[in-house]
Design goal:
The complex is a heterotrimer of chains A (about 450), B (about 325) and C (about 300).
Chain A: H1 2-23, E1 45-51, H2 54-71, E2 74-80, H3 82-95, E3 102-106, H4 110-115, H5 139-144, E4 154-160, E5 162-167, H6 168-174, H7 184-194, E6 202-205, H8 216-225, H9 242-258, H10 268-276, E7 280-286, H11 289-293, E8 304-308, E9 321-327, H12 334-344, H13 347-356, H14 368-372, H15 374-379, H16 384-393, H17 415-432, H18 438-457
Parallel strand pairs in A: 1-2, 1-3, 6-7
Antiparallel strand pairs in A: 3-9, 4-9, 5-7, 5-8
Helix pairs in contact in A: 8-9, 17-18
Chain B: H1 23-39, H2 43-64, E1 66-67, E2 77-78, H3 82-89, H4 91-123, H5 129-136, H6 138-141, H7 144-156, H8 162-173, H9 183-186, H10 188-213, H11 217-225, H12 230-258, H13 262-267, H14 277-286, H15 291-316
Antiparallel strand pairs in B: 1-2
Chain C: H1 11-16, H2 35-66, H3 70-73, H4 87-92, H5 102-131, H6 138-147, H7 153-167, H8 173-196, H9 201-209, H10 214-225, H11 227-243, H12 246-251, H13 259-264, H14 274-303
Helix pairs in contact in C: 2-14, 5-8, 5-11, 8-11, 9-10, 10-11, 11-14
Classes of the chains: A alpha/beta (about 450), B mainly alpha (about 325), C mainly alpha (about 300).
């Protein structure tokens, strides 16, 4: 009897403790002002989710002393690597959880997110601002971020296309010249000739790491210019078509014969490192790499030449990619969010970065005025013209030799593409590693792509 | 004890005043009270766990019967067993089951054996024993995602990782060119396993060391004095005593390693045949956005694990078979 | 020679077993060691050192790399003697991004410490009810606790996210505390139960005969004796809570994010990050390393089921 009372008192004490813990679930964290899950109400805060690329890190640094000081709006950032940030914002936007007001989306997500009504249109806010000067934004960018209903749903923060970077000094010493608009056959030829000219230096670096945004970014552009495509206009999958196969064969063989060591693991960073450390002579990849290559502490500063993305059957083949700001419809601080977007993508911000950090760190690739700026031209002399040309020449709707069912150059802007292409990329990566043939990889890829076809052909 | 009691009204039940108790009802009531007294301390923990884990599990089961792709919020519909069919016919899912089993068994066995060896080594006195024991548990203390990052980029990387660098240096001493293998590409599953074994061996070692140090030494001394060899001592005295600890270590290790996500995600991103079940489910949720199929996969995993665990714990293991006090 | 069974010491043996020195092991007395035995002992000690260093090497490399510059960290062959710099740590503390690491560290500390305390408060009575005065179906209850860990955490994530989103608990440390508690409770119950079941019955009976109430039995008998076991359990729970990444990354956003989530923000696909990540990894692992090193004595002692008096 006595122990029963005691035990029940113990039970009550424990239950109170548990209830207290559950009650704690309303309390916020130590991350700064404002309540946690509760709406902080007023427009003096904005929550931003963004990828941790260098340009974004600079933005984070410059916010407090500039944006917050001028407008009184506190910006709470969450910065994550690309894969993680994609998982997070897709979770966030699809559930409209309202945890974030602004997120760095790419032109891959914007069309489908806009179609689902997850984004707030910017026509009347940011785009309407005279200071912002929407007409200054490069046309392919605006086009890529406009929804099917004609409204603008995101503003680019920085953009890129792709081009070919090569060691000018090594080419000169070997008596080789790179044409301004090379073809892939010429590039393969040059790779063979320059391979081994310097000890430990391979001909070319091409991405091999699995991922729709890793290996398939450059590889899809190769497919496009070889006359292939993921889907034709009737949504029939074309992964095992002769053109697609030829393109992937070519890419895999080039990497295996004259490409970098550890190719199946090589992504953007590895190839950048390779080019900087003199382990490769050429690199086909994003225009944004030029900033790092020409930075002051880069071992290859001043030695790199830039040529247009190699072609075969098309006039241009550079891709188009932008990290852009999208405002979540369920976000709680719409006005503050619009102000933030307006500031972050403005000309004034670019000038700020130039003053505080340097022109090579400016988030370029979105405004014509940047490329017309004399200071920028001086600082980015080796590559600014090629970058601007690559972006302006990018044909978002018609990048190949045949019509496409959806937008996108190095991707197909439908939600199913990411997962499907990532799975195919794992097989192609394995093919580079010699663990399977290109045929096998593409046969598997075809059946994966056909599942996506079925979905769209039913509609 | 009260002596007087009021006479009850004719149809009211008898009050349980002391003088009117019957022995049998007494004993039953006492037994029930005793049973509740025994249960009471258990209840807070039990209720808490039930509330926080079973509610989500029920929801997972419900979602597994729905066709729900988060990118198409307008197409949510009841799907019956579609998701389960998809789970069982999906070659990727089957492959990941095999991978999970392979990964778990390998990591648990190897780290158990290694942990035992290290525990045996640390059980004896030698110079600096405390230091070695301290540094041995460091791998378990490093944040797992950090450890995975270090393994992937600082150790395995064929261009600038430590392994290839060490090979380079070693062969350079003899003037030869070193092989610079691409560790992750050539042996993806082993690469992930190695990182996990490195992290979990200290955990096994700690449990086994505790077991070794709880051996009753007087009996062992007596056996040694009687002339038993080291191997005989180990086989007939140490191992039986360690059985419970080995089982506990294997059980706890299995539970955590089956669920391991950080290593696979970081080192190979699930590629090259290393996708285990948690990774596949993650991929279904966050890349394919197919909530229904992912939930179905989760439910299948639970059922499978419970089946295996029931078999293992109820029949093979001694862990749940101790006599009560 | 018969092999005596040693599965569990009988209570009589336990009561009469001589008190063992903390560092007891199979050490031979110096009088009884032969030269061959000494050499062998020395060799085995050497092997132990080599194995220990081999396991520690990646951690040591991580610490060393955190003090190198990015380009030095990425050379082949590795430059062990490259000049040391604090750049990586400066970056961790916000030199390049302006982001302070203290909020996530505080969040992690709060979540880990509070959830550990809660786990101990819940597991101790539960273990009592499963060992010393066990309920009838104790093995079923143990199995149930274990089964709650069989659902892959990633599969349970969606329902928790939905519920938390509805009740407004997203991005709060309280939610993490609740989840970490339920995550660690099964293991704590299993561990604590093992410790409590080793407490000699006579002591408990004596205390009960003395008329001690349950809370005072806990206070005066159970907790002191199973102290090291409690410490071991607490340390394990703290480690698992601190290191947890999946829930934290999905369920928090700008306020309640924890140290491991902050760590992932240093990994980038654009440019070198090895030194930065190593510095961040060392900084984020630091509290756990300190706690583990300080308490590892207790850990082994506590895990020595039955070596406690």
């Amino acid at each position: 009897m006595r122990s029963n009372n005691r035990a029940s008192k113990l039970t009550i004490a424990m239950s109170v403790g548990v209830a207290a813990a559950l009650g704690l679930s309303a309390c916020g964290g130590a991350g700064g002002g404002g309540g946690g899950g509760d709406a902080s109400g007023g427009s003096d805060e904005v929550n931003v989710l963004m990828v941790n690329n260098p340009q974004m890190v600079d933005l984070q640094k410059l916010t407090a002393a500039n944006f917050t000081k001028d407008t009184g709006i506190t910006v709470n950032y969450t910065v994550l690597p690309e894969n993680d940030v994609r998982a997070k914002f897709s979770q966030e936007f699809s559930s409209q959880a309202g945890q974030y007001d602004v997120a760095s989306l790419s032109n891959y997500e914007v069309p489908s997110y806009a179609a689902n009504g997850w984004l707030t249109p910017l026509d009347d806010t940011v785009a309407a601002s005279a200071d912002f000067d929407q007409s200054d934004i490069l046309e392919p960018m605006t086009k890529a971020l406009t929804g099917a209903d004609g409204k603008l749903y995101a503003e680019p923060f920085y953009g890129e296309s792709s081009f070919l970077m090569y060691r000018q000094d090594v080419f000169e010493a070997a008596g080789l010249t790179m044409p301004e608009n090379p073809t892939w056959d010429e590039v393969a030829d040059l790779a063979a000739k320059v391979d081994g000219v310097e000890p430990g230096m391979k001909g070319i670096c091409l991405r091999g790491q699995p991922g729709w945004g890793q290996i398939f970014a450059p590889l899809t552009t190769v497919v496009n210019t070889f006359g292939g495509t993921w889907f034709d206009e009737n949504w029939d999958a074309q992964v095992d078509s002769p053109e697609f196969t030829e393109a992937v064969d070519f890419y895999v063989k080039l990497v295996q014969d004259h490409g970098e060591a550890g190719a199946p693991q090589a992504g953007f960073t590895e190839c950048l490192n390779n080019l900087q450390q003199g382990k490769v002579a050429m690199w086909y990849d994003a225009t944004s790499a030029a900033g790092s290559l020409e930075a002051d502490d880069s071992p290859v500063k001043g030695k790199i030449g830039y040529a247009a993305a190699p072609v075969k059957e098309t006039d241009s083949s550079g891709w188009l990619y932008t990290w852009a700001w999208g405002i979540q419809k369920a976000g709680k601080n719409q006005d503050a969010a619009a102000k933030f977007v307006e500031w972050a993508s403005s000309k004034e911000y670019e000038q700020l970065v130039a003053d505080e950090i340097g022109w090579s760190s400016v988030p370029a690739g979105k405004r014509t005025s940047t490329y017309d700026n004399a200071d920028y031209q001086a600082a980015a002399a080796p590559f600014y013209q090629q970058t601007e040309d690559a972006i302006v020449d990018a044909k978002v709707d018609d990048p190949g030799v045949q019509p496409r069912p959806a937008a996108g150059i190095q991707f197909v802007a439908v939600p199913e593409f990411a997962d499907m292409a990532t799975q195919v990329s794992q097989d192609v990566s394995a093919a580079i590693a010699g663990q399977q043939t290109v045929e096998e990889a593409l046969t598997k890829g075809q059946s994966l792509a056909e599942k996506v076809s079925e979905k769209y052909q039913d509609q | 004890m009260s002596a007087t009691v009021e006479a009850p009204a004719p149809h009211e039940p008898r009050p349980e005043a002391p003088g009117f108790r019957t022995p049998r009802r007494d004993a039953e009531a006492l037994a029930r009270a005793g049973a509740w007294a025994r249960r009471a301390p258990l209840l807070p923990a039990l209720i808490f766990v039930i509330a926080v884990t079973q509610v989500p599990f029920v929801i997972t089961i419900v979602v597994s019967f729905v066709n729900w792709n988060s990118l198409y919020p307008n197409d949510i519909a009841f799907g019956g067993f579609d998701n389960y069919v998809a789970v069982f016919t999906d070659p990727a899912m089957r492959a990941s089951v095999v991978t999970t089993v392979l990964l778990t068994v390998t990591v648990v066995l190897v780290s158990l054996v290694l942990g035992l060896v290290v525990a045996l080594l640390l059980d004896r006195q030698f110079l600096g024993r405390g230091v070695v024991r301290t540094i041995m548990i460091a791998p378990f203390l490093v944040v797992p995602v950090a450890a995975a990052l270090v393994w992937k980029h600082a150790l395995y990387n064929p261009e600038y990782g430590l392994f290839n660098g060490a090979l380079n240096w070693l062969f350079g001493l003899f003037g030869a060119t070193a092989p610079q293998p691409d560790w992750i590409t050539n042996n993806p599953l082993i690469a992930v396993e190695a990182a996990l074994i490195w992290q979990w061996t200290p955990f096994m070692m700690l449990i086994l060391l505790a077991g070794l140090q709880s051996r009753p030494l007087d009996v062992i001394e007596a056996a040694r004095v009687d002339g038993a060899s080291a191997w005989q001592l180990f086989r007939y005295m140490t191992l039986p005593h360690m059985r419970r600890y080995l089982e506990l270590a294997a059980l706890l290790g299995s539970i955590y390693i089956v669920q391991n996500f950080d290593a696979v995600f970081t080192i190979t991103s699930g590629g090259l045949g290393t996708a285990n079940l948690p990774y596949t489910i993650y991929q279904q949720f966050f890349q394919a956005h197919d909530y229904g199929a992912a939930s179905a996969a989760g439910v299948v995993v639970v059922i499978g694990t419970i089946a295996i665990a029931t078999f293992a714990l109820r029949s093979v293991s001694t862990l749940l078979k101790e006599e009560n006090r | 020679m018969t092999a005596p069974t040693l599965d569990r010491p009988t209570t009589a043996a336990v009561a009469t077993r001589p008190r063992r020195a903390p560092r007891a092991s199979s050490a031979r007395t110096s009088a009884g060691r032969t030269l061959g035995g000494r050499v062998r002992g020395g060799l085995l000690g050497l092997v132990a050192w080599i194995v220990g260093l081999a396991f520690f090497a990646p951690v040591a490399w991580m610490v060393l790399t955190s003090f190198h510059s990015e380009t030095d960290a990425a050379t082949n062959p590795p430059s062990i003697f490259a000049p040391l710099t604090l750049d990586g740590y400066a970056n961790f503390f916000g030199a390049n991004s302006g982001a302070s690491p203290w909020p996530p560290l505080i969040n992690s500390a709060t979540a880990s410490v509070v959830s550990t305390l809660l786990v101990l408060a819940l597991a101790l009575p539960a273990a009592y009810a499963l060992s010393i005065r066990p309920v009838t179906k104790w093995s079923d209850v143990m199995f149930f606790f274990l089964s709650t860990k069989m659902l892959p955490m990633v599969a349970g994530l969606l329902p928790i996210y939905l519920i938390a989103s509805r009740i407004g608990a997203l991005d709060s440390v309280g939610l993490l505390i609740v989840l970490y508690t339920s995550m660690n409770l099964p293991i704590a119950v299993w561990m604590m139960r093992s410790f409590l079941s080793e407490i000699p019955v006579e002591i408990l009976e004596a205390a009960a005969l003395d008329g001690a109430s349950l809370p005072s039995i806990f206070r005066r008998v159970i907790i002191p004796i199973s102290g090291p076991g409690l410490a071991a359990t607490a340390l394990i729970c703290f480690i698992f809570s601190w290191n947890e990444l999946l829930f934290a990354s999905v369920l928090t956003s700008t306020q309640a994010f924890t140290a491991p989530v902050f760590l992932t923000s240093f990994v980038t696909s654009q440019g070198l990050f090895l030194a930065k990540v190593c510095a961040a990894a060392v900084a984020v692992s630091f509290p756990v390393l300190v706690a583990g090193f300080a308490a590892q004595d207790k850990l082994v002692q506590g895990l020595s089921l039955g070596a406690v008096k």
